[in-house]
Design goal:
By secondary structure, the chain is α/β, with parallel strands linked by helices. Helix content is 41%, strand content 14%. The strands form 2 sheets. Strands 1, 2, 3, 4, 9, 10 and 11 form a 7-stranded mixed beta sheet that branches. Strands 6-7-5-8 form a 4-stranded mixed beta sheet. Strand 1 (41-46), helix 3 and strand 2 (73-78) form a beta-alpha-beta unit. The longest helix is centred in the middle third of the chain and has 15 residues, at 235-249.
Length: 429
């Protein structure tokens, strides 16, 4: 499907982005002052640096990099979920940072295509870094035209976390592996006043779990078609939606899940108000030690006739990459030093060991301080992997899908209405 973020669309994208290029009153905002024309100053724009998982390790890495390169200054710009829009604003003013650290999702899917960032494949090979990257990561970051959008860096496993102690308290003898077992476990948990599956039904966490459940009856190719086109009318997609609705109306998900967020989800699980959550690596790393001691990780339970033979998990290699901007190509020697440093085995191992991050690069390091992250890394063939739809969903449909997710998690919404909500999200794409 053609991306709506064409060059013309990029100029009009976001709230007032086009105006930012002509209104002098905006010239002092951080979005427009990120670039530094000094060839001895590298400007990096990242989501790391505050409370984001891995921030302390990243800031320490910057300190080491500065110490090893005394003639090169590094300016670190930090934004959260608004990073993509802030970057686009600065790019429109031709004052964008040199390197951007962000995931491949929504707005960023179109950046290389519209010239907001550059194809880095040639740099990867010229700098001899291809062998450092997992082949799956290279595939995920490469677009349909063969361009490598960014240097892959963070990855994540996304299993299901089960609080074994809460399940035991409710009389659930084993981790559920089928839908029937999950429904039975939910009833027992509710009888003890414990929420079964907590999920951010009003944000991206709910969207991912919904996509995972729908794929119960889909092959990878069928899932790719559904999430690329918005066509959820195939037999497998309809069966997956039916399965989700059956679980939802049986009380599997926490009360009012349609209004919960990722923050409320992790709070419920980490305070043991809920027994089960779909948790990516960064969430697993935050589970308190006393809770982690009696928590197991596994996959999402299957229904009869599923396209998979084992409970499912999500996995992605597109969580954070190093994108190079047009400004960055003017300081490519400094960019090369930075990327090489971040790709070094000792730097990569620190993110794994100190922050519990999964990486898109080869490493022998293990997340020993984060037992649930390490356990997820060892799941291997005990689970089946389904498709993370992020790189296939058209940017214009990404946010509407969140709205459709909240509708889907509202109890009583029929399977037909869930399907209609999902397909409606694609109408503007």
């Amino acid at each position: 499907m053609h991306s709506p973020l064409t060059r013309r669309g990029f100029l009009a994208a976001g709230s007032g982005l086009a105006a930012a290029t002509v209104l002098p009153g905006l010239s002092g905002c951080s979005a427009l002052t990120g670039a530094d024309s000094d060839p001895h100053t590298l400007v990096v724009h990242s989501q790391l640096g505050t409370t984001a998982p891995g921030s302390p390790t990243y800031l320490a890495a910057l300190d080491r990099f500065r110490a090893e390169n005394p003639g090169l200054k590094v300016k670190n710009l930090i934004n959260g979920d608004d990073l993509a829009q802030v970057y686009e604003t600065s790019r429109l003013a031709r004052k964008e940072p040199d390197v951007v650290m962000v995931n491949l999702y929504d707005k960023t899917l179109a950046w290389t295509d519209v010239g907001a960032t550059v194809d880095v494949k040639g740099y990867l090979d010229d700098w001899g870094l291809r062998e450092r990257v997992r082949p799956e990561a290279l595939g995920a970051w490469t677009d349909a035209k063969g361009r490598l959008r960014a240097f892959p860096y963070f990855a994540t496993n996304w299993p299901i976390a089960y609080n074994r102690a809460l399940l035991d308290r409710a009389g659930v003898d084993a981790i559920p592996t089928t839908g029937d077992e999950l429904i039975a476990a939910a009833r027992k948990l509710r009888a003890k006043g414990i929420a079964p599956v907590t999920v951010g039904g009003n944000d991206w966490t709910g969207q991912k779990l919904l996509a995972q459940i729908i794929q119960t009856f889909l092959t990878e190719d069928e899932a790719r078609h559904a999430y690329s086109t918005g066509d959820f009318g195939s037999r497998g997609a309809r069966e997956g939606i039916d399965y989700f609705v059956t679980l939802r109306d049986a009380g599997v998900f926490a009360d009012k899940a349609q209004g919960l967020t990722s923050d409320s989800m992790t709070t419920q699980f980490n305070t043991e108000a809920a027994a089960i959550e779909s948790a990516m690596s960064s969430a697993l790393a935050k589970v308190p030690a006393k809770v982690a001691e009696h928590t197991e990780v596994g996959g999402w339970p299957l229904a009869g006739g599923a396209a998979h033979d084992k409970p499912t998990i999500l996995r992605t290699y597109t969580l954070i990459g190093f994108w190079i901007s047009p400004n960055g190509t003017k300081k490519i020697d400094a960019v090369e030093k930075f990327v090489r440093f971040m790709y070094r085995p000792d730097t990569v191992s620190r993110f794994i060991e100190e922050s519990g991050r999964d990486m898109a690069l080869h490493s022998d390091a293990v997340s020993t301080r984060f037992p649930l992250v390490a356990a997820a890394q060892r799941l291997g063939s005990r689970v089946s992997q389904v498709l993370l739809p992020d790189v296939y969903v058209p940017p214009a449909a990404a946010q509407p899908l969140i709205t459709a997710t909240s509708t889907s998690f509202t109890r009583g919404t029929s399977a037909a209405k869930v399907r209609a909500a999902l397909e409606t999200a694609y109408r503007s794409a």
